[in-house]
Amino acid sequence: MANPLLHLVFGGEVRDPQGVDFADSDNLDIVGIYPDYKTALEAWRGASQARVDEARVKYVVVHLHRLLDPEKEEGEH
Q1: How far apart are CA 57 and CA 38, in angstroms?
Q2: pLDDT tens-digit profile, the chain (77 residues)
Q3: Which of 37, 47, 58, 74 has its CA 20 to 30 A from that of 10?
Q4: What total number of domains does the chain contain?
């Protein structure tokens, strides 16, 4: 069985809606850690849509597997 490609989904208020400079890192909304991109994307979409009316709130997907093993190519397990 292949190792999961872990992804983190989190969000919060950003200083500039075009960037990812979070205004208050003490109050980030940690949505969760997911075993694949598809599941993370679904979580990201749900969290983003729940706060769509707040222009300065942004959610992101972080590819944890790339941070944990930067030498490994995407297709390797």
Answers
A1: 22
A2: 567 899 999 999 999 989 999 999 999 999 999 999 999 999 999 999 999 999 999 999 999 988 887 776 655 54
A3: 74
A4: 1
